[in-house]
Amino acid sequence: MTWRQATREEVYTYYAEEFPSYVADLPEFITANGPKQYAVAFRDPHPVRKDDIPDRDFIRRDTWQTDRSGEPTTPAFNEFEDVVGFIRDPARNDPLGRSNFALADPSVLEKPNPRPDAVYYALDHWERPWVLLVDIDAKEIARKRASDTVFEDDDWDNEALLDAAGILDAEPAGYPYAFEDIDCAIEYGFAVRDIFEEDFNAEETMVVYSGQGVHVYLLDTDLAHRYDEQSREVLNDLLLETYDIPIDPVVTADRRRVARLPYSLHADVCSIVQPIESPHFDVRSATPEVITE
Asked: How far, in whole angstroms, is CA 94 from its chain's centroid?
């Protein structure tokens, strides 16, 4: 098994044909106007309507217009189908409309339509507490494994270190981790879920395969689980120092963070981001039907 980057045509076909079939399976808190933003990342930067603004390879779009006090007034998306339209064709369905900051219409440019290499939603939410998510990335696991393996030169850069440890040559070849690092990330993810359920008495948790690791959610909305920034820092310390789990602490603690949308396509590895139920999840099963050998 190996990986590759999805083509523009495969990305478009996935969101036009396969992704809509998963919409009913999205977690209930992911609605048209619940998350405070949706975001997309592009392979190639795309112009905006105003000439003196740099081209964008990542855009965020608010789900509500707000008044001066920050209260929501007008929704950007009337239903989730509008979000799907924005994901599928961000330039033509940009909720900013004719604003100078909206993506430029490809029909007046000598550039193709931008296609989303990644789709995100904001963890900050209008209808529930800020979503608590722990991110575990196979790249970090691979880097630590390489550091533990190679001792010749402490000044090597990351690529040289991974190359010396044989990780760049391991499948998937050329990626900064091996499949064993992804499997390890998944195992860590279920360990975090067990900590949430056993140590924090969490009743609603979720582990999501992110394409290059896992996201672990604690979704209880009672007061005991409405963690503020300080409490999240304590949680980070617990996972990192007590349990020695290699999480990205910034993702847990930063209210502005976005997360990959479940059932979106991780175009760099041709994998569907998705909730999983077992630490033995086979990443090969995440390849969408539209991807051909």
From this structure: 20
Residue 266 lies in a domain: no
Single residue among 70, 94, 122 that ends a domain in this structure: 122
Q: Please state the rounded mean pLDDT for residues 144-161.
A: 80
- Smallest CA-to-CA distance from 87 within 33, 28, 35, 19 is with 19
- From residue 123, alpha-carbon distances to 36, 82, 130, 167, 222 in Å are 8, 20, 6, 32, 17
In this structure, is the dihedral angle defined by the CA atoms of residues 206, 27, 272 and 46, taken in order, positive or negative? Answer: negative
pLDDT digits (tens, 9 = 90+) for 106-145: 888 888 889 999 999 999 999 999 999 999 999 999 999 9
How many domains are there within the chain? 2
Helix ranges (DSSP H) in 201-247: 229-237
156 exposed, middle or buried (CB, 10 Å; 0-12, 13-18, 19+)? middle
Q: Are 205 and 190 in contact (CB under 8 A)?
A: no
Token pair belonging to 223: 């007061």
Q: How many CA atoms lie within 13 A of 186 on its CB side?
A: 21
Rounded Cα–Cα distance for residues 290 and 287 (Å) = 8
DSSP per residue over 44-89, as a string? EEE-BSSTTSPPEEEEEEESEEE-TTS-EEEES-SSHHHHHHHHH-
Q: What pTM was computed for the model? A: 0.95
Q: Which of 72, 95, 122 is the last residue of a domain?
A: 122
Which residues partner with 37 through β-bridges? 62
Q: Is the pLDDT of residue 152 over 60?
A: no
CA distance 44 to 8: 11
C-alpha closest to that of 74 among 95, 53, 90: 95
